Amino acid sequence: MNARLYDILNNKSKNIDEIIKNNYSGSYLNNTKWYKLIDELTKNFEEIYINYKLVYDDIVEGYLFDSVDSEPYFLEPIKYKEIEWIEFKNEYSYLLNRDNKKAGKTIYKQDTRLIKSVIDKIGEFRVDIFSDKIRLYAYI
Fold first, then answer.
1. 114 Cβ neighbours under 8 A, 6+ residues apart
2. Calpha distance 100→88 (Å, rounded)
3. pTM above the 0.90 mark?
4. For residue range 111-121, what is the model confidence (pLDDT) as tens digits?
5. Three-state DSSP class for 60?
6. By C-alpha distance, which of 117, 98, 118 is closest to 106?
């Protein structure tokens, strides 16, 4: 386990409810809605790449989803309630071959208009649309 995940598990995630209460005025997602969102997106797209930001961290991470994790986990050990926002970018850099990391990375494209249409069918979300991405908020 790397030092960042250790810190999340043993320090930051223990105070998550307090961090949310002290730093955000509105919550837009719950576990059920998160699960449904990721499930529908991975059903409609073979893979979906997102960037995400945690409520207690300034680091933006990227992840390629091909299936939904088991509730309450967004991505174990990170729980849904720890996510401040996720982004769907028009283009992203990712491994050319997941089985051979030495092969390098390449640029992939994803249709954010189609992603947005799937999101809209699921329910109402707090979303900002930019020229190169869509950002979906869990907290404001």
1. 44, 45
2. 25
3. no
4. 999 999 999 99
5. strand
6. 98
Q: Would you state the structure tokens that stand for residue 84, as one six-digit string?
A: 């401040």
Name the token pair of 22.
């002290």
What is the distance between the alpha carbons of residues 9 and 89, in angstroms, rounded to a whole number?
28
Nearby residues of 53 by Cβ (< 8 Å), 6 or more positions away: 59, 60, 61, 83, 84, 85, 86
Structure tokens at 40: 């529908």
The string of pLDDT tens digits covering residues 43-58 is 999 899 999 999 988 8
Selection from 11, 20, 24 nearest residue 81 by Cα: 20
pLDDT in tens, 69-126: 888 888 888 889 999 999 999 999 998 888 888 999 999 999 999 999 999 999 889 9
* Residue 75 amino acid letter: L
In angstroms, the CA 137 to CA 30 distance is: 11
Structure tokens given for 115:
């992603």
Give the residues across from 97 on adjacent strands.
none
The Cα–Cα gap between 44 and 32 comes to 18
Tokens encoding 50: 């997102």
Please check whether residue 94 is in contact with residue 49, taking contact to mean a CB–CB distance below 8 angstroms.
yes
